[in-house]
Design goal:
heterodimer; A: 114 residues; elongated; B: 91 residues; mainly alpha; 4 helices
Chain lengths: 114, 91
């Protein structure tokens, strides 16, 4: 029983850390603010869920694992809400997307990667 | 298992240090806020791993809950402030 628990825990934590690595590389490499929001909201949230579920499997049925499940629920609700608030603030202040409608209509506009 | 938690904590520390590049270089203020939000959410997992490393997860999990709530409220309030009329040109 304990070996199965430890094996699943190692599997979940490793997969979650790989997902968080994908999110960090996405923050560096993607060209635009609205593209970077995808990297940090989706893959980071899934990575955090996987790592903390792996720690819950390692811990077993205790009070601490119930609190860890509360942390998972709070992160899964709050992280996309915060990043959506940030993206809507950027849209309200007039930050242009990388592919805006004007660029698609006349295709000769130069695009610069900042 | 102790050694696995140690190695994953070191790997997670390196992963957390990567978005600091975007905090320093980011073209707009929104990129900097996004990178700081990513650092704050990953630090939650790092505190959980450190708690398992010391064998005191019952103490560290309360710190984690408080840190998660503080990060969420801070991100929401700063994005509301930047979108308000008081800031002239945040880009």
């Amino acid at each position: 029983m304990t070996e199965i628990q430890i094996g699943f825990s190692i599997l979940f934590v490793t997969f979650g850390i790989l997902l968080m690595l994908v999110g960090s590389v996405g923050i560096i490499r993607l060209p635009d603010f609205y593209a970077r929001t995808h990297a940090t909201s989706k893959s980071d949230t899934l990575g955090i869920i996987f790592v903390i579920l792996g720690l819950v499997i390692y811990e077993g049925f205790t009070q601490s694992s119930a609190k860890l499940i509360l942390v998972v629920l709070f992160i899964a609700l709050s992280n996309p809400i915060g990043i959506h608030a940030l993206a809507s603030a950027a849209m309200k202040k007039g930050l242009k997307p990388f592919f805006s409608d004007d660029d698609i209509k006349n295709d000769s506009v130069k695009r610069e990667v900042k | 298992m102790h050694q696995f938690f140690l190695f994953s904590s070191v790997a997670l520390t390196i992963i957390i240090a990567v978005p600091l590049f975007r905090v320093l270089k980011g073209p707009t203020v929104f990129d900097r806020l996004l990178a700081t939000n990513a650092i704050a959410t990953k630090t939650i997992v790092l505190i959980c791993l450190i708690g398992f490393l010391y064998g005191r997860i019952d103490m560290f999990i309360d710190i984690t809950l408080a840190y998660a709530i503080l990060g969420f409220i801070g991100s929401l309030i700063i994005s509301k402030y930047v979108a308000s009329q008081n800031v002239e040109d945040p880009l």
